Amino acid sequence: MAFRDIRLIGDPVLRTPCAPITTVDDRVRTLVADLLETVDHEGRAGLAANQIGVGLRAFSWNVEGDLGYVLNPTVVELSDELQDGDEGCLSVPSLWFPTTRAQRARAVGTDLDGNEVVVEGQGLMARCIQHEVDHLDGMLYIERLERGVRKQAMRALRDL
């Protein structure tokens, strides 16, 4: 296991959709261990593989004392009920912007043994699921911001 550096906005790996994991080998096992170690710190809710430079579909979470991971997640359900709140990202450090997400979310994937994993929740966990799957699809949360807020975010990024 290793604590890995976070890739920052501007790194092309963050804008590239991640490839599905087709074989669980030592590289994938090490990736999962690194994702879990790197997300297991105060103030970190989720971490996608591409945020540590690996273009494979996997993410870890650390929400309200629940630490876990999923391989090849697919969002299968989002509630019609929405939540508004400030959202941030380890790859866009120090910036938080109001982002609308579904109040509840459910994703399905697998674990290292090929068993089905269901990741679901509401509030922060739902936000985490949506945020991390967006990462795996090559999208940063700032792309989901309303037009005026997105302009504000882009200005703030230039000022960093």
UniProtKB/TrEMBL annotation:
> How is the cofactor bound, as the UniProt entry phrases it?
Binds 1 Fe(2+) ion.
- On whether Iron is a keyword of this UniProt record, the answer is yes
Catalytically driven reaction(s): N-terminal N-formyl-L-methionyl-[peptide] + H2O = N-terminal L-methionyl-[peptide] + formate
Give the InterPro entries listed for this entry. Peptide_deformylase, Peptide_deformylase_sf
**One Pfam family it belongs to:** Pep_deformylase
Q: What is its EC number?
A: 3.5.1.88
- Under which main EC class is this enzyme filed? hydrolase
Binding residues for Fe cation, per the UniProt record?
A: 89, 131, 135
Catalytic site positions: 132
**GO BP:** translation
Keywords, comma-separated and alphabetical: Hydrolase, Iron, Metal-binding, Protein biosynthesis
Q: Please list the cofactors this protein needs.
A: Fe(2+)
Q: Which residues form a coiled coil?
A: none
PANTHER family membership: PEPTIDE DEFORMYLASE, PEPTIDE DEFORMYLASE, MITOCHONDRIAL
- Give the protein family: Belongs to the polypeptide deformylase family.
Q: Give the protein's recorded name.
A: Peptide deformylase
Q: Lineage in the entry?
A: Bacteria, Bacillati, Actinomycetota, Actinomycetes, Micrococcales
